[in-house]
């Protein structure tokens, strides 16, 4: 359903977001040099850990605010969200990009951005999005 073009468009629409290759040269989107979403293909250890459950489509990594949010996403929609042992005790989920809808992808990316953006930048962005709340 979603594509890398959708990820790029949504992420780059957020303030002070840049796209830069991660350590392995794959796309990662950052706010003030803090990655909040990134391309994350499965590695050999991931494939071994997941076995037959390993997806074969495009995989997005996304930062989440805490492990509670991670667990909620994993429980809510295991057809879209998953994790590997590499991400144990780390607040991030892996997303089957070809199974997530655009509205949910937009919410996920935006929340990941809020988690990594400096507080003042996030507050300023929120005030522009919802002037009544500010």
Give the SSE order as H and E letters: HEEEHEHEEHH
Q: Radius of gyration, rounded? A: 15 Å
Mean pLDDT: 94
Q: What is the spatial order of strands in the main beta sheet?
A: 1-2-3-4-6-5
Q: Distance between the terminal alpha carbons, to the nearest Å?
A: 34 Å
Tell me, briefly, the overall form: globular
Q: What is the tally of helical segments?
A: 5
Explain this structure to me?
With 134 residues, this protein is α+β, with helices and mostly antiparallel strands. The protein is built from 5 helices and 6 strands. It has a 6-stranded antiparallel β-sheet, covered by helices on one side. β1 and β2 (27-31) form a beta hairpin. The termini are far apart. The model has no long low-confidence stretch (mean pLDDT 94).
In short:
The chain is 39% helix and 21% strand.
Write the layout of secondary structure elements.
Elements: H1 4-12, E1 17-21, E2 27-31, E3 34-39, H2 44-50, E4 59-63, H3 67-76, E5 81-82, E6 92-96, H4 102-116, H5 119-129
Antiparallel strand pairs: 1-2, 2-3, 3-4, 4-6, 5-6
